[in-house]
Design a protein that fits this description.
Helix content: 55-70%
Shape: elongated
Number of strands: 2
Number of helices: 6
Order of helices and strands: HHHHHEEH
Structural class: mainly alpha
Radius of gyration: 31 Å
Distance between the termini: 45 Å
């Protein structure tokens, strides 16, 4: 709801700028110097408001991205736990159903798996289980072929851009530098000692230093 109203406001401001610019061009010859300044200030004010709406939209997009990223990581962790539980249940089922001679083999396999994480069964051990479970063994192999740690280690977006003085990805509240040539552009509130968005233009510490040097 906030996003759509922001989009409408941004569209309205752009239309307002077009109207003000057209009025200025058509009447500039008849305007006094004070009237020209006043008209240009209106255009500048509309531009500033337009930029503020644009910054809000970018901020909202970053927060949405962060929220989606968290949910993806949580799903990856849940999937890893599910696969680990399923692996334990399937291996326990195989161990109980083997019986007699298979019991001794099962213990031997358990010891092997304990030393290497997940042991590889020999073709001899697989044969009776395939007969008993029919298609079940193939299903087990397919499910267990993806190791839970592989899921957890998988990066969500290795090309995610970094921002701010800390060179970290976007998270939480961020603010954009009003210097169009700022090499960093976006900063985390905490990294630049902000708790709320300041009114008017805001320049990052780096750009403030550069501006002072030029004076």
């Amino acid at each position: 709801m906030g996003s759509s109203s922001s989009a409408i406001s941004l569209s309205d401001k752009k239309a307002e700028i077009d109207i003000l610019a057209a009025e200025y061009i058509s009447t500039v010859k008849t305007l006094s110097s004070d009237q020209r300044v006043e008209h240009l200030q209106k255009i500048q004010s509309a531009y500033n408001k337009c930029k503020e709406y644009s910054d809000d939209k970018v901020q909202l997009a970053m927060q949405t991205y962060e929220m989606v990223d968290k949910h993806i990581r949580r799903l990856d962790a849940d999937l890893a736990r599910f696969e680990a539980d399923l692996k334990d249940k399937l291996e326990g089922s195989d161990f109980e159903s083997s019986g007699g001679r298979g019991l001794k083999k099962g213990r031997g396999q358990k010891e092997k798996r304990g030393s290497r994480g997940r042991g590889r069964r020999t073709s001899e051990d697989d044969t009776p289980k395939k007969k008993k479970h029919k298609g079940g063994s193939e299903f087990t192999d397919t499910i267990l072929s993806v190791h839970p740690s592989d899921v957890l280690d998988m990066p969500v977006d290795p090309n995610e851009p970094t921002y701010c003085l800390c060179h970290q990805v976007s998270y939480g509240e961020m603010i954009g530098c009003d210097n169009p040539d700022c090499p960093i552009e976006w900063f985390h509130f905490a990294c630049v000692d902000l708790t709320t968005k300041p009114k008017g233009k805001w320049f990052c510490p780096r750009c403030v230093q550069e501006r002072r040097k030029k004076k």
